[in-house]
Amino acid sequence: MTLFSLADLKEPVKEVPFKTLTSFELPAEVAFYAEENQIPIVKKAIPKNVKILDGKKVKIKGFMVPVVYDKDYKITSFLLAPDQTSCCFGKIPNLNGFIYSTSTKGIKYLKDTLIEVTGTLATEPKMYKKEKCVLIYKLTVESVKMIQYKGAAKGATQGLAP
Question: What is the pLDDT of residues 41-63, one digit of tens each?
Fold first, then answer.
């Protein structure tokens, strides 16, 4: 008789609200953009409740801002943002106000749609050579799904309330 399976040993997926990731202020000199030599300043600002998420499997809700498309016009990297205004036509998010998300398989662009992304989160700020910038959050995407809310017409979504 088996008392447990390998599936039982898997770590549960933690649902993380964007509020947790944006709950702290960064010093002005690194709020929007950090150079590689400023990483120690960024690290010092990150609270323990965010640092402990490093390497954990998480679910986060937000909006997709495409960055890179593959040859089939599927998205292979995108910014996961807490709202729809966090793009080139809206407000510039702080360095802790978005998650750089990557997927080995292309994802359909879900424009103006609240999504739930599941994957492994990195919270250790570092210089990413491929992206040519310092990032606090990077998510290796496992799945993406649209979020629908009760009572809405099929395909309708809800925004993230603060």
Answer: 999 999 999 999 999 999 999 99
